């Protein structure tokens, strides 16, 4: 058939068949089709199924299961738009107080579940766990209390979509001095810990990660080994553990930073980067028959985050600071190896200025069905990473926002040569660089492309304690046909603004040049009586945290859940 007859032939199809064809198109191609001619535009605008696909993509969502008892396309479409508008206006459907009684040693928020361990770290860890499925706009909260996990747990991670909990137990003899995890980040907590003398460090410390089910506390059937373990040459201080699909990663700090990544389904160690000390070589751990063993992390390593189950980033504070990107790839011997894919340099600094405290935080990555019992769910591809840092001991604090898809693009496009990019080659178009005086006390303040800030005090305002602010990096400034209509702007105590212009951080006494960034975002803010020490966020909720003891174990009796 001649090429110029292809479009007339497509348009000759009955509308119901043409819609079925268009449903196979990605969102961008579907939008282009609607611009091709009046007939296609009419079909796209008149089809509920096509409009639903467009709005799903606009909100960076994926569709849920279809079948008996699930929502119709019309119901999904209207619920999607309603939730979009509620987040823009911070108009939650309800505020529910949820009891989570007892002291807080460590906590986690993943997949709609809030979990908290209790007990004193000085006794070797907590044996108590409370898990709570948080309420939504349609479901009530439900909790389960486990009084004895069977093992003292210093830290834990969960993935409810895989019914998986990873319990961290460290077999060492001295009593550790450990900051309760998740009341602050590991990399900030490292400054609070003091290193024991070499004589007090056991030579046979062993990290153990017990792989259990959340529902029964039994060994997880999908795990090749019930317990993952690795010897280390020192007593562990602070640690942070994450589950991503088929891997478990632990970043820790005492004599230096350390990183271990296991494939929990195969029972193998993929990465073991352990800091060295000045003791005899015989005390250095030997881990036989493992594919990737590295002696140390890069100089100045400060923090760690997963990009996927086979890629991760490290933040480093050496020189101007950098973001180091790694992938875990198959090698020729049937094992796996770590590949240093790229180095992204931070802005140039004036002489005598150094970076300090370079943390990174991103949302959890679920390994199971994201849309189970949901009409739609947030995609994990474009989630936001929030990096916090300052220069010098008392310098101003900055936040850098960038998307996982950008960082992961270096892994996907790796051609065998590590790339090193200056700030002006990658930063301005792919980040938003802001000066913020705020400091996060609680983790899990990022979900998808949204970030919730700690409550900002509002002095001398009647009936108002603070301002709630939610940043959203999934915005479309040039869009003119949003079904939710015009943005609300400013109204009473509510503000919604889109920022798509360049922002400038003056060079001042820190940078060689003004720092420019232009990643678009929006800010929804609301005045209220928010007497919290911080907020957590997930797909459907904000969670107000009342505990103010950010650097010591304290009592966390209840949380306030705001559902959308």
TrEMBL record:
Region of interest (Disordered), residue spans: 169-203
The source's domain of life comes to Eukaryota
Q: Which Pfam families match?
A: F-box-like
Under SUPFAM superfamilies, the record lists: F-box domain
For this protein, the record's PROSITE patterns field holds: FBOX
Q: Which residues form the F-box domain?
A: 7-54
Q: Which residues form the signal peptide?
A: none
Q: Which SMART domains match?
A: FBOX
Organism in which the protein naturally occurs: Cristinia sonorae
Compositional bias segments (type: Low complexity): 174-203
Protein name per UniProt: F-box domain-containing protein
């Amino acid at each position: 058939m001649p090429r110029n007859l292809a479009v007339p032939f497509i348009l000759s199809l009955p509308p119901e068949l043409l819609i079925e064809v268009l449903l196979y198109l990605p969102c961008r191609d579907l939008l282009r089709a609607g611009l091709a001619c009046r007939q296609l535009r009419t079909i796209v605008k008149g089809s509920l199924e096509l409009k639903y696909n467009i709005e799903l993509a606009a909100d960076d969502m994926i569709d849920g299961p279809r079948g008996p008892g699930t929502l119709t396309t019309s119901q999904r479409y209207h619920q999607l738009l309603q939730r979009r508008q509620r987040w823009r206006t911070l108009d939650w459907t309800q505020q529910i107080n949820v009891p989570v009684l007892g002291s807080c040693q460590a906590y986690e928020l993943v997949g709609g579940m809030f979990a908290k361990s209790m007990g004193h770290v000085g006794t070797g860890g907590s044996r108590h766990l409370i898990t709570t499925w948080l309420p939504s706009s349609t479901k009530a909260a439900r909790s389960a209390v486990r009084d004895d996990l069977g093992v003292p747990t210093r830290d834990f991670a969960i993935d409810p979509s895989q019914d998986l909990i990873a319990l961290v137990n460290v077999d060492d003899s001295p009593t550790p001095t450990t900051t309760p995890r998740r009341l602050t980040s590991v990399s900030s907590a490292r400054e609070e810990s003091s290193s024991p003398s070499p004589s007090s460090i056991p030579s046979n410390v062993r990290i153990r990660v017990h792989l259990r089910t959340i529902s029964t506390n039994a060994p997880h059937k999908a795990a090749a080994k019930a317990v993952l373990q690795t010897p280390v040459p020192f007593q562990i201080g602070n640690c942070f553990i994450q589950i991503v699909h088929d891997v478990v990663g632990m970043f820790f700090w005492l004599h230096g930073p350390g990183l271990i990544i296991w494939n929990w389904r195969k029972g193998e160690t993929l990465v073991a980067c352990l800091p060295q000390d000045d003791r005899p070589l015989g005390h250095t751990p030997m881990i036989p028959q493992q594919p990737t063993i590295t002696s140390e992390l890069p100089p100045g390593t400060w923090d760690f985050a997963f990009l996927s189950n086979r890629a991760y980033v490290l933040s480093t504070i050496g020189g101007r600071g950098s973001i180091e990107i790694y992938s875990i790839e198959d090698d020729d011997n049937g094992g796996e190896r770590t590949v240093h894919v790229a180095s992204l340099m931070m802005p140039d600094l004036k002489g005598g200025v150094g970076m300090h405290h370079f943390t990174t935080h991103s949302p959890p990555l679920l390994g199971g069905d994201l849309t189970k019992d949901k009409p739609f769910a947030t995609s994990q591809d474009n989630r936001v990473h929030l990096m916090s840092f300052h220069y010098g001991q008392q310098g101003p604090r900055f936040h850098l926002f960038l998307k996982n898809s950008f960082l992961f693009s270096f892994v996907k496009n790796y051609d065998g040569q590590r790339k090193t990019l200056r700030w002006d080659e990658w930063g301005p178009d792919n980040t938003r660089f802001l000066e913020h005086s705020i400091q996060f006390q609680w983790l899990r303040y990022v979900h998808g492309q949204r970030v919730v800030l700690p409550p900002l005090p509002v002095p001398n305002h009647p009936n108002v304690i603070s301002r709630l602010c939610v940043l959203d990096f999934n915005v479309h400034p040039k869009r003119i046909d949003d079904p939710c209509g015009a943005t609300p702007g400013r109204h009473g105590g509510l503000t919604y603004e889109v920022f798509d212009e360049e922002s400038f951080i003056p060079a001042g006494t820190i940078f060689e040049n003004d720092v420019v960034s232009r990643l678009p975002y929006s800010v929804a803010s609301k005045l209220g009586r928010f007497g919290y020490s911080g907020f957590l966020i997930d797909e459907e909720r904000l969670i107000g945290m009342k505990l103010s003891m950010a650097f010591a174990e304290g009592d966390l009796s209840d949380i306030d859940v705001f559902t959308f």
